[in-house]
Amino acid sequence: MTSETTAKADGAVLSGVSETALMTLQVRANEARRPDSIIDDPMAIRLVDSIDFQWGKFGLSRRQDMAVRALAFDTETRRYLADHPSATVVALAEGLQTSFYRLNTAGVGDEFRWLTVDLPPMIELRRKLLPPSERITMRAQSALDFSWMDEVPAADGVFITAEGLLMYLQPDEALGLIAACAQRFGGGRMMFDLPPAWFAKGITRGMLRPTLRYRVPPMPFSRTPSQLANLVNEVPGIRAVHDLPMPQGRGRAFNAIVSTVQRVRLFDSVRPVNTLLEFG
């Protein structure tokens, strides 16, 4: 073992749902390394190069979906910060996302604050590997421990992200989190993504696996676009629900398929969703 290897952080400290952060990081970093990359994410590359892990268990991925998802979250966060430059962005179960660093160089100003909420092993890894900022606060706890809300000065605006989180929660946990945010943060917004039910069931049953060496944790929560639209009637404090289009990716075929699936309602029950909630 070389000194370079021993200097790296041990990715094996992450397990279960937390380990999926390594898989999404790898996909994003692989995309960022491409000469025709759709995302500028040097911090993702830095993280992968700083973590000692058997990356091969996730397969040799050339996917771009995680980068496209990251761009979708960046777009809506920037849009909110344009109107609320001093807002707090709350990144629930942030994992090894590098959104703050992308946004910080995207011309949205230097007034916004950032609150990372994740489990202790993940927070320790982020503290060790990512550059500190006086605008970043970290809470080592579950997103379902709502005491993180006390850290948020809601009067300046709040944008909550749950990127790659809600699908791993039980339905009552996911809906309870949404309801608590809606009740607490009037005028704020919350964005999350969900897989279609067929995909979630395939993952949960172990039928869909990146490789034989790795099984993604169960995904007990999924909703169709129409079910999510009805949250405005089911959850007090939700003023509007937006079914967001996916950003452009790389390649005509990819973009044509994504565009068709999103435009044709027949595909609503079988496509993934990015959802934005407005709180009243």
Automatic annotation (TrEMBL):
Give the highest taxon in the source lineage.
Answer: Bacteria
Q: Which InterPro entries match?
A: Ppm1/Ppm2/Tcmp, SAM-dependent_MTases_sf, TcmP-like
**Molecular function GO labels:** methyltransferase activity
Pfam families xrefs: LCM (PF04072)
The family database entries (Gene3D superfamilies) matched by this protein are listed as:
Vaccinia Virus protein VP39 (3.40.50.150)
Keywords assigned? Methyltransferase, Transferase
| UniProt-listed Enzyme Commission number(s) | 2.1.1.-
Native species: Mycolicibacterium gadium
Q: What is this protein called?
A: Class I SAM-dependent methyltransferase
One of the protein's GO biological processes: methylation
